[in-house]
Amino acid sequence: MLDIPRMLPNPPVRLIDKFRFFIRKRGLAYKTEKTYVSWVLRYIRFHDKQHPSTLSEAHIEMFLDHLGVHLNAAKNTQRTALNALVFLHREFLGVELKDIKFSYTAVKRRLPVVFSHDEAMLVISELQAPYKLMAQLMFGSGLRISECLRLRVKDLDFSMGSLIIREGKGGKDRSTILPPVLHAALRRQVSLVKAQHEQDLNDGLGEVYMPNRLAIKYPSSANALAWQYLFPAGRHSIDPRSGKERRHHIMDRTVQREVKKAIKSAGILKHASCHTFRHSFATSLLQQRYDIRTIQKLLGHTSVETTEIYTHVIGQGASGVVSPLER
User: Catalytic pick from 42, 59, 154, 169?
Assistant: First the structure.
């Protein structure tokens, strides 16, 4: 269960455990915790395992320059590493940092790979349940794979035609469209979840992981159908934090494997993945002349500049320009 935080020693002793504990006290998303911890560990190893309290701005600059110059990392990768290290020094260690100067990589941002509508539908047709429905949600609602897998039954609002995304990227909630064409399939999926959940309850199980402290606030909700994952795993597993046997959701790597096979079966040679469905959702809306701010809101982008990258994608072949060869 890769998206459930593991238990920490009480009290934490090791530096990284203390750092994890501090992040959780701040209420940051577990994905942010994993990212920050990963960069801090790389930073410490780069400086021969010196304790971060002995390091300074110069050491941060050396590490970031190493990423850009020697590893040819993208600018956004350097920024993510910088955010993690600033959080480590300034927030966790309480050390005020001066201006950090380093060279951003010259690597230009690549345009995202997208499916045409026909390509997306062809890949979807190659998938079997429940992966087909997941791909339809990623393409039809603009979901990230993690957002799709973390959906609970209660997040479906058929009457309003909306889908609620809880704690998406950046820990933010948002709503997006729930395509009417998927309502029947989603109701069938809920029925399957209900039948499976009733069997789990009969077996003395049926409790699902509850985020944050909701399990304490609403102790009976963990056994409620509304809180069950929309795409539950085929078997139970042990929750690493509580030691309880629970049914988690399907793992992302399982879905990614099935989608890769479907792309190959469809004969599509693009370097595509699950995330390509989300990119294709955005470009499709742009081609339909929807407002960029509306698309930004549906995708959950903090900055409209992130959404505007898709305008460059459709500008390549959908701008109405006629090649001289066609004249």
Answer: 169
Choose the catalytic residue: 152, 197, 278, 279: 278
101 is catalytic: no
CA 297 to chain centre: 16
**Which 3 state secondary structure label does DSSP give 26?**
coil
Catalytic pick among 89, 144, 150, 247: 144
225-235 tens-digit pLDDT? 999 999 999 99
Regarding whether 232 and 137 lie in a shared domain, the answer is yes
**Total structural domains in the chain?**
2
pLDDT in tens, 184-222: 999 999 999 999 999 999 999 999 988 777 877 888 888
Q: What residues form DSSP beta bridges with 157?
A: 162
Domain co-membership, 184 together with 214:
yes
Mean pLDDT of 238-244: 78
Task: Write out the residue range of the structural domain in which residue 58 sits.
Answer: 15-92
Q: pTM score, two decimals?
A: 0.80
Cβ neighbours of 30 (radius 10 Å): 18
Q: Does the annotation count 14 as an active-site position?
A: no
pLDDT the model gives residue 217: 82
Instruction: Tell me if 33 is assigned to some domain.
Output: yes
- Residue length of the chain: 327
Catalytic residue list contains 36: no
Query: Is residue 54 domain-shared with residue 158, that is, in the same domain?
Result: no
Q: What is the DSSP letter of 288?
A: T
Q: Which of 30, 58, 92 is the last residue of a domain?
A: 92
Contacts of 309 (CB under 8 A, 6+ apart): 109, 111, 112
Active site residue 47: no
Please indicate whether residue 31 is annotated as part of the active site: no
